[in-house]
Each structure stands twice: as C-alpha cells, then as structure tokens.
Design brief:
Layout lengths: L15 H4 L4 E10 L8 E9 L3 E5 L6 H8 L13 E4 L2 E5 L2 E2 L3 H5 L2 E4 L11 H7 L7 H6 L4 H13 L15 H14 L4 E5 L7 H18 L2 E5 L3 H7 L2 E6 L2 E7 L5 H8 L4 H4 L15 H5 L1
Parallel strand pairs: 3-9, 3-10, 7-8, 8-9
Antiparallel strand pairs: 1-2, 1-4, 4-5, 5-6, 10-11
Helix pairs in contact: 4-7, 6-7, 7-8
The protein binds adenosine-5'-diphosphate and magnesium ion.
The site of adenosine-5'-diphosphate has 10 residues, from helix 2.
Length: about 300
C-alpha cells in the first residue's frame, strides 16, 4: 500500500529552507569583546536562545548588554584572539573568530534591531520609516527612489495596525512620542520579516504607560508570529512580567540564566548593588504574574 504524504513544503515559502531542522534562533559561543586595554566588556559568553523565546537581558549599566546585542547583530566584531567565538542566527553564521561572515548582510535581514532611541528618521513619515524595513525585499532602485509598491504599503499599514499606530502613518516621525516611535520600529521589523528582534533598552526613556505598550507589542508579535525576542531591560520588573527567561550579565559574564520569576531581591542587590533601588521597583511597576512563584511583589516586599 502506498500512502500519500502531503508535501508541506510545496508552498512558495523560501523561508522554510533555513528553519526546518534547527530550532535554535541565536547560538553564541565563546564570545569575548575588549575595548582597548581594559577588562573585556564581554567575557567568554556562550548561550542558546530557541526560536520563539522571549528573553530578557538584565544587568547593571556597563555589564555588557549593548555589546552583546551589537555582537549578535553583527554591528560589532568579537575579539580575534578568541578563536572559537561564533554567533549564528537560525543556523547561519553572523561572525566567526572575530570576522563577519561573508553573507552577514543577508543574515542581518532576519534580525530586527531596536535601540533605546533614534530608531526612526525624524523628517520622514512613520509610513516611510516602516517601509524602509522592506528595503531588503524591494529592488534597490525602487527603494532609493521611495517608490514603494502598493503591496508593500498595504503590508506596512498592516504592520502599523498590529502595533496600534496605523492612524499615525502620515505623521512625521519626529512629532511622535518616544513610545510611538518604538512601536513604529517594531512595525518596521515586522515588515522586514525579521525572525529575531534584538531590542536594546527599548523602554528605558519611556513613561510606564508607554513602556507597557511597547512591551505588549513585543510580547504580541513574539506570541502570534513566533518571532524570537531578546530585550535588554534596565527595569527588572518588566523582565519578570514579560519574559519567561532572563539572562543576567555582570562585568561581561553571564551570572544567571533561568526563569525570570526565580529572581529575588537578594540576587538583584548582588547584581545591581544594594543602593540601586530604582532599578528594582517603582511605584508604577506592573504586577508580575502570580501563581505561587516568586514575583516582584515578593521581591520588593
Ligand atoms: N565603543 C566602546 N569603546 C570603549 N568602551 C566601550 C565601548 N562600548 C562599550 N564599552 C565598555 O564596555 C562595557 C560594557 O558596555 P555596554 O555593553 O554598553 O554595557 P550596558 O549596555 O550593559 O550598559 C562598559 O565598560 C563600557 O564602558
Ligand atoms: Mg547598554
């Protein structure tokens, strides 16, 4: 008897070719980065982040969060002497042994990067800013002339709607609030069809209400689109609320990697120093999910 197995790969999806056997979104091996003669900003960091995870990167100022994010996105190269240092995203190398991979540019297309600020071009409309995310998928001559196709515009509006920003599409980016700009940056990553979003302190300069909206937008696309999110957060309460897993850095080393709900006050004091109260709890802090786990309420209490 011959069974017919439906060919799941018959569709027009080029994307399937990289995501079939590999469930690791970000693989980091032996990553060391020094600036000048000082102690390494990042010191022999290895970790795996699986597809679909939403992971918080926490740690005091100067602990290496931005350096790690920039190394993953290929904006920085690891030290050369760290021979085995490697970053791969969805199985494709971004850099190896301190050298960018030859196709790093293509791999970067899978990575959406969101910074604390300056994500959007202020003089351009929000819509145009989002459309810039599609440049990897639009012939350059059209992209540079600003002649985006109807289909791209439709997708851009759809992406803006996902983050609740479609009504502001025509507005100049410079006139948007910080939180609105961050949501615009998330929409741009959606248009880019990013598989991984790296967000470096995206809520650090936002008020609590805007911060919550940005974290919810990230959380939603993580849940609904399966986009892997690595987000560095100064505010540990948001990490506990939105990210099941937290990775803590201190002096460039991973000192914790596990459930964010297991993070307690004693650990935070060790991580940030006992004086750094404002990093740990604020009046407007969101309440962490309950259910017998150690939550921020317990942390702060
Ligand atoms: N471009 C740079 N030149 C020199 N030192 C840097 C540079 N970028 C980061 N560093 C240093 O590397 C360490 C880690 O910085 P960073 O990754 O920005 O930490 P975080 O994002 O956790 O605040 C710090 O000691 C910082 O001063
Ligand atoms: Mg930083």
């Amino acid at each position: 008897m011959v069974m017919t197995i439906p060919d799941c790969r018959a569709g027009p999806t080029r994307e399937t070719e990289v995501s079939l056997p590999n469930t690791t979104a970000i693989a980091i091996r032996g990553l060391t980065k020094s600036f000048g003669r000082e102690r390494a900003a990042l010191d022999d960091v290895s970790l795996d982040i699986e597809q679909g995870e939403m992971v918080a990167l926490i740690g005091a100022s100067g602990s290496g969060k931005s350096t790690l994010i920039r190394l993953i996105s290929g904006l920085l190269r690891a030290d050369r002497r760290a021979g085995a240092a490697a970053v791969t995203v969805h199985g494709r190398p971004v850099q190896t042994g301190g050298r960018l991979a030859s196709n790093a540019q293509a791999v970067r297309g899978d990575i959406g990067v969101i910074f604390q600020q300056f994500n959007l071009v202020g003089r351009l409309s929000l819509l145009t800013n989002v459309l810039i995310g599609a440049l990897g998928h639009v012939p350059t001559w059209r992209g540079t002339l600003g002649l985006f196709g109807r289909e791209e515009k439709r997708r851009a509006m759809e992406a803006l709607a996902r983050v609740g920003m479609h009504e502001r599409a025509a507005q100049r980016a410079s006139t948007l609030s910080g939180g609105q700009q961050q949501r615009g940056a998330i929409a741009r990553a959606l248009l880019q069809r990013a598989k991984v979003i790296l967000a470096d302190e995206p809520i650090a300069s936002l008020d609590p209400a805007s911060a919550t909206r940005v974290m919810e937008a990230l959380s939603e696309i993580n849940r609904d689109d399966g986009i892997t999110v690595l987000v560095s957060l100064h505010q540990v309460d948001y990490a506990i609320r939105y990210c099941p897993r937290a990775i803590a850095l201190r002096d460039g080393r991973v000192v914790y990697d596990g459930p964010s709900t297991a993070i307690d006050r004693a650990f935070l004091e060790e991580l940030y120093g006992a004086d750094n109260e404002e990093l740990i709890v604020g009046e407007d802090r969101p309440t962490a999910a309950t259910g017998g786990e150690r939550t921020l309420a317990a942390v702060g209490g």
